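Database export, one record per block. Field names are fixed; values are copied verbatim from the stored entry.
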Amino acid sequence: MCTACHTAHEIEPPLNGHFKKVSDQRCGKCHQDRLTRYHETYHGKAMELGQAASKVEVAACYDCHGHHDVLPPSDPASKLSPTNIVQTCQTCHPKANAGFAGYLPHADPLDRENYPQLYAVFMGMTGLLVGVFAFFGGHTALWLFRSVYLYLHDSKTFRETKIETQQGGEWFTRFTPFERFLHLLVVTSFLLLVITGMPLKFYYTDWAKTLFSFIGGAPHRAVAASVRRGGDLPVLRPARAAVGAAGLATARVLRDPQTGRFQLRRLTGALFGPDSMIPTLQDWRDFLAHQRWFFGKGAKPAFDRWTYWEKFDYLAVFWGVFAIGLSGLVMWFPTVFTTFLPGWIINVALIVHSDEALLAAGFIFTIHFFNTHFRLEKFPMDTVIFSGRISKTEMLHERKRWYDRLVAEGRLDEYRVRDEWERSKGIARTLGYLFFGTGLVLLGLIVYAMATRLVH
């Protein structure tokens, strides 16, 4: 019956955005499972985020299936038949090919029988997400409980030690200006991507609609997409710069200072020495010693220049850039990648991109924030990444092996800096609190969105 799809007061011109959204809802009355999966695609999310009110079109149900000529794909006359599907896709995607037409707009990644590839990727990413948060969440909880115990056991000594580390008389360089600049690039590009990406992931919330409307205006897809792509490019720059800097540093290390000749045997020391970010057996020993300290079974380890959790944070950036960057390129240029890959690779890219982004945002705004700011001895914020300097008291308290090594090598004065922090600490702390506060707000919105979905 016509009334199953139409009602007298809702029939509007086919090109009207409101009609598109209503038509999807009408189709969903009989095909709720298909509509649910459609909402997980970019088209469905854009529609829910207000794209229906824009002049910029996104595909609704009838764009692919037809209006009054809906036929099963097995029918040669169907718009989705093997003969016609590429032409149907080319209506909106002029460069669409047979591979692109293999994209699965209604695929369920939890359906192992019908979508085994997507199921495997989804379970792998879910396992990675749960595993990382379970491991580091437990690590954070133990650290927090130990810090609280020490504070309650002797709060006077705890407070005095904290003040001494922040107001020491001697200061040494912990981060060079170049390293601080890299961190600034990472922070700004990361926050930009989270702000523009999370509304798409949590499209069903009111805050997502409001934020997406704010950053995109009426033509949401055109503006928001350009903003995200503008963020995708600078997020690669810190990685490229870090790799380039590592290459230059390696070249300097390989050159013998006495003869000026390159010696490959010097590479081992550069890669696995105490100044390297590559994990070593010593990091495993530090990790075990740290766990013993959590339970009061041993002394707190005296770390070197880099701790085991800092190395994990550093290397995780490269994994994230690879996973999010490659999957983002597939979604950005789907017709290019589907010339040599099957269409379901777009579905895989969406799963990897979405889950890795959630993992990165959740980890940074919780675990990383705790390690650097939430710890009682650092709270409310550790400004070292902005000032680049660390006091002698803090070095002896947290990185005694590094201090002792510099003294033994006669290099301590190379790291000594003058106290010029007063001139710029106001600006640096303002930026720090701005970045920090933005991250906490985004974390709150993400937690709210996930809780809302669980309830419903």
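Remark 1: The chain has a mean pLDDT of 80.
Remark 2: The chain has two domains: 2-94, 116-455.
End of record.
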